[in-house]
Amino acid sequence: MKALIIDDSNLARQELKHLLKNRDDVQVIGEAENAEDALEKIIDLKPELLFLDIQMPGKDGFELLQELEDAPEVIFTTAFDHYAMKAFDHNALDYLQKPIKDDRLALALEKAAAKIRKRASDLKDKNVLGLNNQVFVKDGETCWFVDLAEIRILEIMGSYTRIFFKDQKPMIPRSLNYMESRLDTEVFFRANRQQIINLKYIQRIEPWFSGTLKVYLKDGEEIEVSRRQSIKFREVMSF
Amino acid sequence: MKQSTLYWLCQIFGWGIYTLFSIGMIYVFAGPQNISPNILLLQLIIGVCLFVFSHLFRWFIKRNDWTQLSIKSLLPKLILGAIVVSTLSQSFIHLLIYLVLPLKGIMPFSWTNFVGFIGSVSIVMASWSTLYFAYHVIQRNRRSEIEKLELTSALQEAELAILKNQINPHFLFNALNNIRSLILSDPEQARSMVTHISELLRYSIQFNAAEKVTLGQEIAIVKDYLQLESIQFNDRLTYAFEIDDSSLDIKIPPMAIQLLVENAIKHGVSQMTAGGNILIRSVLENDHLRIEVCNDGQLKAKSKREGIGLKNLIERLKILFGHFAELKVENSSGNTVTASLKIPLS
Question: pTM above the 0.90 mark?
Answer without folding.
Answer: no
